[in-house]
Description:
By secondary structure, the protein is of the alpha/beta class. It is built from nine helices and nine strands. It has one domain (9-243): 3-Layer(aba) Sandwich (Rossmann fold). 45% of the residues are buried. The chain is globular. The strands form two sheets. Strands 2-1-3-4-8-9 form a six-stranded parallel β-sheet, with helices on both faces.
Amino acid sequence: MVPVRRDVTTFVLLHGAYHGAWCWYRVRDALESRGHAVVTFDLPAHGIDTTPPGSVTLDDYVDAACAAIDRAADETVLVGHSMSGVVAAGAAERRPDALDATVYLTAYLPTDGDSMLDLRAPDTALDGNFVVDEDRGLGTVREGALDDVFYGDCPPEERALAHSLVRAEPMAPLSSGIPLTDANFGRVPRAYVECTADATIPIAHQRAMREATPVERVVTLDASHSPFLSLPVETADALERAAAI
Length: 245
């Protein structure tokens, strides 16, 4: 049995677009082996959640994050990956007293009123590979581009797993702005785990967002957009370091 640490942290892990709770499976194991509590779940219309994609809003995502925070115990750190940087910011706005820190893992880091689409970087691997189904309100990444966009440094078996599990992304939440205030969002300590080889949110863009919304700590991984699959132990290390604000 792994001894439980006295400085137990509850990590609430928010997956990004197209993904689900499944993407954290190796990071979850690494954090739990160190005595931490870990909460993962599918955002509405992601993973195995059955919410109709056309009905989903950004508020629904934030509601789900807040519900997970409300169930958490001990010191609580909210981690948002990619699109869920916006979700994490919204949850920090609503639950500032329940969070010890927020960590943005190669994530979109908003200012007041920003949407994820507002924050998208130009000239990325997504260019020409993002397909929108206007009738259904869904976006997808071309199958042949998934590795370039998300999984550049992931082992073949992790790529195969991800290819089998990614889902189309509801578009409405991506275009919704998130309201943030200094009184709430602004008082939750923030850290950022940057990924230097990310082809979807390039490192220069990650750093530009941090200039607009400063953070207290930065941890660097030499990884692409999905370090939870390519470097799970190192990602767990980075989250621990980032959470110690």
